[in-house]
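FAQ

Q: What does a record look like?
A: Structure on top, sequence underneath. For example:
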């Protein structure tokens, strides 16, 4: 959009200059001298300054927009990297959870390592040894 406006402004300016040059040549051949009035010179100068300023502003806009596009591309790359690292973090945390589940299975006491079982086995052993001693005497 900006490039087309700049293009059209340049074309209009070139057409304006060619028309002015043709009119100057046409008048030179008829009158042999053509002079611009001060008002016309001031008007042409102001038109040229306005066109130059417009072109300068449009070029600055183009530069700013290109830099903004580059910044958005960089931001997109950074976001992609961030998402990749977050996915890796999720995978590592899932692995950690699985390792804790395996560790919990390994550390869970076996059936023969329970204190209640030891108590009852001890009581049975003492009772059985007392009964055997009574029978032996």
């Amino acid at each position: 959009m900006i490039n087309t406006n700049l293009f059209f402004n340049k074309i209009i300016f070139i057409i304006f200059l060619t028309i002015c040059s043709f009119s100057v040549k046409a008048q030179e051949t008829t009158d042999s001298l053509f002079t611009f009035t001060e008002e016309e010179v001031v008007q042409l100068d102001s038109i040229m300054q306005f066109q130059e300023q417009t072109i300068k502003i449009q070029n600055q806009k183009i530069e700013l927009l290109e830099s903004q596009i580059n910044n958005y591309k960089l931001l997109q790359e950074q976001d992609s990297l961030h998402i990749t690292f977050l996915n890796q973090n999720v995978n590592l945390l899932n692995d950690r959870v699985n390792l804790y589940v395996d560790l919990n299975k390994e550390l869970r006491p076996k059936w023969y390592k329970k204190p209640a079982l030891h108590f009852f086995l001890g009581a049975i052993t003492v009772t059985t040894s007392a009964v055997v001693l009574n029978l032996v005497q």
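Q: Is there anything notable about this one?
A: The longest helix spans residues 38-107.
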